[in-house]
Amino acid sequence: MTAARNLSNMTLAHEIAVNENFELKQDALPENSLAGRVKHIVHQAFWDVLESELNADPPEYEHAIKLFEEIREILLSFLTPGGNRLRNQICEVLDTDLIRQQTEHSAVDIQGLANYVISTMGKLCAPVRDDDIRELKATSNVVELLRQIFHVLDLMKMDMVNFTIRSIRPHLQRQLVEYERTKFQEILEETPSALDQTTEWIKESVNEELLSISETALTPGAENSSKPSLSPTVVLNNSYLKLLQWDYQKKDLPETLVTDGARLQELTEKLNQLKIIACLSLITKNMVGAVTEGFPQLADRLKRISAVLLEGMNKQPFNLKEALNSIGLQTCVEVNKTLTERGLPTLNAEVQANLIGQFSSIEEEDNSIWSLIDKRIQLYMKSLLCLPSSQKCMPPVPGGLTVIQQELEALGSQYANIVNLNKQVYGPFYANILRKLLFIEETMGKVNASSPPN
Asked: What is the pTM of this model?
């Protein structure tokens, strides 16, 4: 429970610090859901009972008094430490003992108390609630007025929470690295297995790098005089690159990246869409580039069409093959339209069928165009990770990616920011894991080298 609480606090602090748009919202039950209907029935029953009590002869005020007591506590919670004058006034006007005495002598003014509450809410609320306050003032039915007062108070609570979040964000941003590292250390002390998946994630990159070195050593003409050592930086960067091809539906993320899981998944999904757009652009250029050369507006239009038809490609149910076929058909229409406008011959049926077929084949396994674009994007992302975090300029975009350059640079910048912050926070934990893994590899290498031949 302690570890779960620390993880929850760490995740919330991380989200507030890195997500400028983060705010809390009221939970809304799905429309027509069972829970929603039950809630509506129970609430309606409560307000119906209150109305019947206030309309009785003589009126029964006990439930109304309890509501004003609750309203008083909510209003007091909005006050800053220096608001003593308003605090005293609220306590005097909404003194439940005094109100109860007034009801005994039939001298209580429920409407007057409600008007005071609305006036006080108007002083404490954010400007965005001004329209709600005006609607409250225009409500004449006392029961409905009390009901709406609680609704607006709930909105004001959320406003206050989000104001507090915005206020503490700069402080959290300054302290985030130390805070998150400390919290994760506490989690690790409570749960020693909290780095198991992270270790496997890095170990996979170590094994891949060792395999790559072995293959290089076996290459004819390669220098074999000394056994090259693994670079911790290269191993860790390769691990980060794996996140851009991660199956977020089936595989759990390393523990140290859970707080950025949603952002990484979103980046990966956007990147997959950009890969397809780059593939489509390259196919179009190779097949009909000679007849469309000099029409930059056509390329932009085709890119927009592809982006629209690929929207939601990572969600179910989305048929990628159908979408690619539609993009192919629309591409042929747009190309022919442009050629016709300039008095040029349109594409023949064979070329159009070939273009549509190549578009549809992108989703096939081991597609050469997809593999090429994927390698170039991986190369670009790898070059981003090798840049010093202080460097602001972006590396050059490899050939074939010009059509998505703007989007790729924006996405790459977000990715690099996530990675650099993650390295700052969890660097010491990664260093310990790498030290153990690489020490084991080096030790095994020395043992093998010293073993006598059979």
From this structure: 0.73
